[in-house]
């Protein structure tokens, strides 16, 4: 299974956990990770992705970031922290533009790609609007239609859940609307990815070719994983540091993004079932709207296993140490802090 991941790697630490799961699945031969797109504009997120890739022995994995690149950081600043721990990686090159990286990976794959979106939708909307280039004579929509066979999205809210008091970024506890979508018509708190940029959310939902499977907020809000990262890897490794900075050592985090990546390697019978077909849309604020109908191209995940059982399935990959940590050696050399780009403040909406 050839996989491209789109992630914000900034606002919540489960993005870092999702990359860890993807690398562990790659080590196990369950998927082939082709590229990573960063759908926020912070150079720290881009360099953090390269640090994580290097830790798992894949320093050459293509990474692109949304432009123009700025100095955006998340509330717990874990991306900057793990970049500064490994400056020889963070300083290695100027960030590549995300849509170009996505187009290059899709064109090289030719077909059979699973695209996993665990962040925002600006890169994917721009990909659909992109024209022919050095990588492919096809426009973006044609390239996606020809190469992508499955799309998995962490976003939206399709029911209740009991963890709303503690889930932070993916709920409305501290945000005006859902972070991937927003707020559904039933009045439930909304999910974070849809609401970040409602226009891009709507553009993706309306324009993306082919079927899309959604992992909503409620599917993983009680599935807490990553509690043992600091002992299974070591407290100083990038993903363990990220979780400790974001959530506190040993506390773990709900598994929205790691579960979505795990499903990219194959369905999980007995753990997750899929809804009947329907259509997901979003209103002007990014609020999730779901209409079931036989001709729909969308489905959403429904957890059927208890949260602790599903958490164990995710942790099985999240907590696996790399087969080849740092490629050849366990330790990275120390060096002076040099950022990947000159950190200049830029005014724009990412």
From TrEMBL:
The lineage of its organism: Bacteria, Bacillati, Actinomycetota, Actinomycetes, Streptosporangiales. Residues 160-180 are annotated as: Disordered. PANTHER family: INOSINE_URIDINE-PREFERRING NUCLEOSIDE HYDROLASE DOMAIN-CONTAINING PROTEIN, PTHR43264. This is Inosine/uridine-preferring nucleoside hydrolase domain-containing protein. It comes from Sinosporangium siamense. Pfam families: IU_nuc_hydro. GO terms for molecular function: hydrolase activity, hydrolyzing N-glycosyl compounds. InterPro entries: Inosine/uridine_hydrolase_dom (IPR001910), Ribo_hydro-like (IPR036452). Residues 3-286 form the Inosine/uridine-preferring nucleoside hydrolase domain. It comes from the Bacteria.
């Amino acid at each position: 299974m050839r996989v491209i991941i789109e992630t914000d790697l900034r606002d919540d630490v489960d993005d870092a956990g999702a990359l860890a799961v993807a690398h562990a699945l790659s080590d196990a031969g369950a998927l082939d990770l082709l590229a990573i797109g960063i759908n926020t504009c912070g150079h720290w997120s881009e360099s953090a992705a390269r640090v994580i890739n290097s830790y798992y022995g894949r320093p050459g994995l293509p990474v692109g970031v949304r432009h123009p690149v700025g100095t955006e950081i998340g509330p717990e600043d874990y991306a900057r922290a793990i970049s500064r721990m490994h400056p020889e990686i963070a300083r290695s090159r100027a960030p590549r533009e995300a849509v170009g990286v996505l187009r290059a990976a899709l064109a090289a794959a030719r077909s059979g790609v699973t695209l996993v979106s665990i962040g925002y939708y600006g890169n994917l909307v721009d990909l659909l609007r992109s024209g022919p280039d050095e990588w492919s004579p096809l426009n973006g929509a044609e390239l996606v239609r020809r190469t992508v066979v499955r799309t998995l999205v962490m976003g939206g809210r399709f029911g209740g859940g009991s963890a709303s008091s503690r889930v932070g970024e993916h709920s409305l506890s501290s945000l005006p609307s859902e972070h991937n979508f927003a707020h559904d018509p039933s009045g439930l708190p909304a999910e974070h990815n849809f609401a970040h940029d409602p226009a891009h959310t709507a553009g993706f939902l309306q324009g993306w070719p082919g079927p899309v499977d959604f992992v909503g907020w409620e599917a993983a809000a009680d599935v807490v994983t990553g509690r043992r990262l600091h002992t299974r890897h070591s407290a100083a490794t990038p993903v363990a540091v990220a979780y400790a900075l974001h959530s506190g050592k040993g506390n773990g985090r709900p598994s929205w993004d790691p579960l979505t990546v795990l499903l990219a390697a194959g369905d999980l019978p007995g753990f997750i079932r899929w809804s009947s077909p329907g259509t997901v849309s979003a209103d002007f604020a990014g609020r999730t709207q779901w209409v079931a109908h036989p001709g729909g191209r969308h489905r959403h995940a429904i957890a059927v296993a208890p949260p602790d059982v599903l958490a164990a399935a995710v942790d099985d990959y999240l907590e696996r140490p790399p087969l080849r940590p740092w490629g050849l050696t366990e330790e990275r050399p120390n060096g002076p802090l040099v950022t990947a780009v000159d950190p200049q403040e830029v005014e724009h909406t990412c």
